[in-house]
Design brief:
Layout: H1 2-32, H2 39-49, H3 54-76, H4 85-123, H5 126-132, H6 137-174, H7 180-190, H8 193-219, H9 224-254
Helix pairs in contact: 1-6, 2-6, 3-4, 3-6, 4-6, 4-8, 4-9, 6-8, 8-9
């Protein structure tokens, strides 16, 4: 009986969380993304999400591109397919690793920051004060962050794609003996517009997920400093899981024959 009772409580808690999330998404879309739009808030959030995340995303992309080139060269040498290094690095970075790694890094950095900021505002009753002053917190706090995430992540991923391919180029030409001109020509010949665009579509979805989870957990934070800490952790974990799940679904949809 105790097992069934515990199982029932877990299921009820899960259904309550799903229902609360769906209602928050509805309010965020209906209230947060309809006029009045706070343009200044959007640009401020774009700066925080995009520009301030560029160093960590760029470094991640560069080293990932270099490691990918090494692994493909070592694996390809077993089948005399070393010449495919430049092509596979470009496809791997633009289609999968660029958007996924950028999304995870931004989730850790920005998702946690949003949850901590809104969580602190919630426990110190600043969000309640906004409502008292006739300012809709969904329009002022949630909408600008979601818009900034959806706009900024594709730009960030596009830059990460270039840096990641450059990481593979540096390793390929400096360590693996590839000709510089041939490496660039091979990359340009095989990389198609759809490869890059699929990664940018994923990035826009990941931007929505990261900012939504940060806002959701921060908005429902309670219990003082400990509650803000839990909200921060939950925002990062839920964002990471949803990014990986969404990546699988989007890959299935975008590349289904």
């Amino acid at each position: 009986m105790n097992f069934l009772a515990n199982l029932g409580r877990v299921v009820l808690a899960l259904l309550t969380e799903i229902g609360s999330t769906v209602l928050f998404i509805k309010d965020a879309l209906v209230q947060g993304l309809t006029p009045t739009i706070y343009v200044r808030q959007i640009f401020e959030q774009m700066l925080k999400i995009g520009y301030n995340s560029l160093p960590v995303v760029g470094l991640t992309a560069f080293f990932t591109g270099g490691a990918l080139a090494l692994q493909i060269y070592l694996g390809g040498s077993r089948f005399n397919a070393e010449s495919l290094v430049s092509t596979i690095v470009a496809l791997g970075i633009t289609r999968e690793l660029g958007p996924v790694l950028a999304g995870l890094m931004v989730a850790g950095r920005v998702g946690a920051s949003i949850a901590a900021e809104l969580g602190t505002m919630r426990v110190t009753e600043q969000i309640d004060a906004l409502t008292t002053l006739a300012t809709n917190p969904f329009k002022y706090l949630v909408g600008p962050r979601i818009l900034a995430g959806v706009i900024t992540l594709p730009i960030l991923v596009f830059i990460a794609d270039i840096i990641g391919i450059m990481g593979g180029y540096v390793i390929g030409t400096r360590s693996l003996g590839f000709n510089s001109f041939a490496y660039i020509k091979s990359t340009a010949d095989f990389l198609q517009f759809g490869d890059v665009m699929s990664g940018l579509i994923k990035a826009a979805v990941f931007g929505f997920i990261i900012t939504l989870m940060g806002c959701y957990h921060g908005f429902h934070s309670k219990g003082g400093a400990q509650g803000v800490g839990r909200a921060t952790t939950n925002a990062v974990v839920s964002s990471a899981i949803l990014i990986l799940a969404a990546n699988f679904v989007l890959t299935s949809l975008l590349f289904s024959e």
